[in-house]
């Protein structure tokens, strides 16, 4: 029986968990960031609470149906509340950071979150049981759906960077033919989006970059003008771009490397970067689009510098990718609808 004073937060907690579980099937990437936010919020809430009123945590002893948990809370825990809760808060921050990462690192975060949620389940009403079990389900569904979206044949980028130091992979489904999607992807203008333009200007301001006039428009033409090179191209299906650079430096410059020598390139204090545009047609009017980025440092010094840069810049970079994909989907579907309405035989 839920005590009267806990009924509302109990119902809200479980409604939130069920909603997150439902979202995980359709939007696993959104759910990932929801859980990052939840763990960061929990860490902040625990820290502020335990520093202001640590004895409030003893109420969990009266709410748990487990004798073992009750004895622990009323015994050792009651004498070490701040140390214990602050340690939990640190762990929650660590889980949020792991969940925010990609692939194997994120899976460690999922595993840690599952262990944490199962560990608090015996608190009963204190953990809004069965909130934690529903939450575990949402994390597992999220990870399964994200992994399913990544299953494919060998990545075209892996030929050039088989063991990356950083890896980012984004997928979106678009209701348009693959040819239309690929063409729009090559020509999408990054800075036409106000948010992307603002992020780029913010980075330039933080790094102290000098202002440079844009001479070209479109993703591929503009990156080619900046010094990138085409490493691999399959007409209408895949494009792999690559360059070497020092992204942590002011006025970063990109330099092309011959595709045959890209993998072996080892000039010190640089990172090798590749990114892809990939389309996978499903029928004649449906396309799965993917863009993957891989980064590999040429030596230990560059790896240290890049890790600090990636820690600071990765959130903005991923937000740019997210916005690009939504812009791409909107423009590709708009163009396909316009072409579908065009009378047969009319010139494009």
Keywords:
348 residues; alpha+beta; Alpha-D-Glucose-1,6-Bisphosphate, Chain A, domain 4; 2 domains; 12 helices; 57% helix; 13% strand
Could you walk me through the main structural features you see in this protein, from its secondary elements to its overall organization?
- With 348 residues, this protein is α+β, with helices and mostly antiparallel strands.
- The chain has two domains: 4-150, no CATH class; 166-341, 2-Layer Sandwich (Alpha-D-Glucose-1,6-Bisphosphate, Chain A, domain 4).
- Helix content is 57%, strand content 13%.
- Strand 2 and strand 3 form a beta hairpin.
- Helix 2 runs antiparallel to helix 5 and helix 8 crosses helix 12.
- The N and C termini lie far apart (68 Å).
How many separate helices?
A: 12
Radius of gyration: 24 Å
Spatial strand sequence of the major β-sheet:
1-5-4-3-2
Which CATH C-level class of the largest domain is it? Alpha Beta
The helix content, as a percent range, equals: 55-70%
- Please give the alpha-carbon distance between the first and last residues: 68 Å
What is the number of independent domains? 2
The low-confidence runs, each spanning 5 or more residues with pLDDT under 50, are: none
Task: Offer a quick outline of the entry.
The protein has twelve helices and five strands. With 348 residues, it is an alpha+beta fold.
């Amino acid at each position: 029986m839920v005590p009267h004073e806990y009924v509302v937060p109990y119902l809200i907690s479980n409604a939130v968990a069920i909603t997150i579980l439902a979202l995980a099937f359709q939007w696993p990437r959104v759910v990932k960031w929801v859980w990052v936010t939840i763990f960061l919020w929990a860490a902040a809430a625990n820290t502020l609470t335990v520093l202001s009123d640590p004895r409030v945590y003893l109420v969990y002893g009266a709410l748990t149906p487990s004798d073992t948990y009750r004895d622990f809370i009323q015994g050792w825990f009651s004498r070490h509340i701040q140390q214990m809760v602050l340690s939990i808060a640190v762990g929650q921050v660590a889980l949020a950071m792991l969940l925010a990462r990609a692939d194997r690192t994120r899976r460690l975060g999922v595993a840690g979150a599952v262990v944490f949620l199962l560990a608090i389940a015996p608190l009963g009403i204190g953990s809004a049981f069965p909130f934690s079990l529903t939450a575990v389900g949402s994390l597992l569904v999220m990870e399964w759906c994200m992994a399913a979206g990544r299953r494919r044949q060998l990545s075209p980028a892996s030929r050039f960077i088989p063991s990356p130091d950083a890896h980012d992979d984004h997928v979106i489904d678009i209701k348009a033919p693959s040819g239309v999607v690929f063409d729009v992807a090559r020509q999408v203008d990054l800075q036409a989006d106000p948010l992307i333009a603002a992020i780029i200007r913010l980075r330039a301001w933080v790094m102290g970059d000098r202002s440079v006039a844009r001479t070209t428009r479109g993703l591929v033409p503009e990156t080619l003008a900046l010094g990138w090179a085409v490493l691999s191209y399959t007409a209408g299906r895949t494009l792999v771009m690559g360059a070497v650079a020092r992204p942590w430096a002011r006025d970063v410059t990109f330099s092309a490397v011959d595709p045959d020598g890209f993998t072996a390139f080892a000039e010190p204090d640089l990172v090798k970067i590749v990114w892809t545009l990939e389309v996978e047609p499903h029928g004649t009017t449906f396309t799965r689009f993917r863009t993957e980025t891989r980064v590999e440092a040429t030596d230990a010094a560059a790896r240290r510098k890049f890790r600090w840069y990636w820690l600071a810049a990765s959130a903005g970079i991923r937000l740019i990718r997210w916005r690009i994909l939504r812009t791409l989907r909107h423009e590709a579907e708009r163009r396909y609808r316009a072409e579908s309405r065009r009378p047969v035989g009319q010139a494009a």
